[in-house]
UniProtKB/TrEMBL annotation, chains A, B:
Phylogenetic classification of the source organism: Bacteria, Bacillati, Bacillota, Bacilli, Bacillales
Record-linked InterPro entries: GxDLY, SGNH_hydro, SGNH_hydro_sf
Residue stretches making up the SGNH hydrolase-type esterase domain: 181-355
Domain SGNH hydrolase-type esterase N-terminal: 26-170
Protein name: SGNH hydrolase-type esterase domain-containing protein
Residues covered by region (Disordered): 1-22
Biased composition (Basic and acidic residues): 1-10
Pfam family, one: Lipase_GDSL_3
Organism: Paenibacillus algicola
Top-rank taxon, per record: Bacteria
Length: 364, 364
């Protein structure tokens, strides 16, 4: 079926999937000033849209693969008075996920306002059969200087990205954060944002709208295996505000019980007093039908809790445990995912609300 | 890019998009006993997966088009002790929406349990490049008789649907509802379920898990224009518990102010005391940037409120007004959609929670 045969868009033009900027737009690269690209720990050195260094340890390269190019957590920030804003993107691949719309996997989200209150503006609309798109995020906005934040694709890489503003529009650097400290997350497909409807709804990105700090999301779908090489690499990121370890959901339970203490040991060698928050996994809806899932979750949570308690007793007062099984609520937790495991926007909102207080407490 | 090149599924097998039933499965048609198909007002007479009669008034046919085949609100109910459950579907078209995953547009959701507590079990996984799929919803369930509810695709029609159970499994009719009265909704793309991540998360379908009544969703994306022919047709549905009119979001504001009183008049002629709930539209996130959206929303809500008040003063004690602008909350209502207008699962959950008390009050 060709795109033009789409019955829904024939009846509802608002549901169409593309829009084009008008001609008198300046196309600018966020690689240049005054744009600020955050959420990519090696961006300042390498100027690459990538979550890990370009050259990786071989073992790590195999584990994370292309996921290092996926831009979960990356943001572009700037101030402008442009009445319109457009975006042009060349993706590394096409939308290809059954549980996640193209907007969440490959789209860009736009918010207006500073970190005390960022307002949702728009998500890119595009023909998701293509790997390149151009989309108008807004137009006819009253001409006052505002901070714009763009959230980049959660499960896709980009080769090129251009930002279109009206000719003659003013541009300046965004306001600074509260400090140059960064919140670091290490996790799995869930923490990477599977399956949010749009990039800004991955839970670390929701948190970013309540925390005036840079958040760096080092979560790799299916590859949150916590090799010592990963812990070593994350240890090289300067000025950590905290490290959140939320990778129980992937991989083998026995392997997890080996990698978690190893990961903490490696990280502690480099950062003796940085707060570490160990988050156990969500309740899967499957556990209502198969008690084996409950047992595994409870055992793994107990293991993590005990490990953190032991480390605290041994003198590490900067490590904490969070029981992730409470995050989706106790009444209708089974409604929060699209496959029994990966949260929807509903699940991610609950995760962010549930974690916010704890993260503020250990970071501030 | 071929499906096998999908990098995400290479690294995370749990994110793969297909599964096949084993061989010793009986494939049964829900068109036969003991299956119950609900949510399709003309199903009993016509045995068609369709939300409107096969033959339509010409004006209505043009307005609703293929949307009448989309199965938003349709459910298949039965009881079984089968340890596994599979489904095989031939869709009328492929997944083709940028803001909505294939699961929400074309998938099937499975819940286990009776209306006092239905537990989410699974959503069909399939290769969304295809228009036919077979998917295992569960297997290895302990063999007790349970009520199964399947929610059908929100924005797609089906030509064929087969349910696969283990050979020798018992099947029986589902428990009856509290009465044979039906909750009727007339609405737009939002009420049809754009853009839920899976069928059961459209707000009328969420409500169905808290209300032991059949719900019939007559919402047609882009076509909620409320022609008198539509009102006439809906009047022919017997045993209405209430009629919810939630179609302000589509169409022209001036047209709406003509069609709404006409629709009510037509419906009242046939159903003088059936509760009617008029729901004004959600807050769009656009209104934070353009006050014209606020004015229009407030004017339309005032119109609806005034109309309902006048009708009540004239003696109709069975018509009510609900201010839909409160449904997404006052703090972060802008976070609840994927395009500023159509709710995600987060928005739909808030809509269902916000409306439940009122609907119970006017129906019970």
């Amino acid at each position: 079926m060709s795109r033009s045969d789409n019955d829904i868009t024939r009846y509802d033009p608002a549901m169409k999937g593309s829009s084009r900027a008008h001609d008198d737009v300046d196309w600018l690269s966020p690689l240049e000033e005054p744009f600020q690209v955050i959420g990519l720990a090696w961006f300042t050195e390498e100027r690459q849209y990538r979550r890990l260094p370009v050259v990786l340890d071989k073992k790590l390269e195999e584990a994370v693969g292309d996921s290092a190019n996926h831009l979960s957590g990356a943001q572009i920030r700037f101030r402008t008075d442009s009445a319109s804003l457009s975006i042009r993107v060349r993706l590394k691949g096409k939308a290809d996920m059954v549980y996640m719309p193209a907007t969440g996997q490959c789209g860009v989200d736009c918010y207006i306002g500073d970190v005390d209150r960022m307002w949702y503006m728009a998500t890119t609309k595009y023909d998701w059969m293509q790997s390149e798109y151009e989309s108008v995020l807004y137009q006819n906005r009253p001409s006052s200087m505002e901070t714009v934040t763009l959230y980049l694709p959660l499960f896709q890489g980009i080769d090129e990205l251009w930002i279109g503003v009206d000719q003659g529009a003013s541009l300046s650097a965004p306001p600074p954060f509260a400090s140059n400290q960064k919140i670091l997350l290490y996790g799995t497909s869930i923490t990477q944002g599977g399956y949010a409807s749009r990039p800004a709804m991955a839970y670390p990105n929701i948190l970013s709208r309540s925390m005036p700090l840079e958040i760096i999301n080092l979560s790799f779908a299916g590859s949150g295996r916590a090799a010592p090489e990963a812990a070593q690499l994350i240890s090289t990121i300067s000025c950590p505000a905290c490290l959140i370890l939320d990778y129980e959901a992937d991989g083998d339970p026995e392997e997890f019980q080996i990698t978690l203490p190893e990961f903490i040991t490696v990280y502690r060698t480099a950062h003796p007093v940085t707060p570490i928050l160990v988050v156990s996994r969500l309740r899967y809806s499957l556990e209502t039908h198969d008690p084996a899932w409950i047992r595994e979750r409870e055992e793994q949570a107990a293991f993590q809790h005990k490990l953190v308690r032991r480390l605290r007793e041994e003198g590490d007062r900067h490590i904490f445990f969070f029981d992730g099984s409470i995050l989706l609520g106790s009444v209708d937790y089974d409604e929060c995912t699209v496959d029994g495991k990966h949260p929807t926007d509903l699940g991610f909102q609950r995760m962010a609300e549930g974690l916010l207080g704890t993260i503020r407490t250990i970071v501030w």
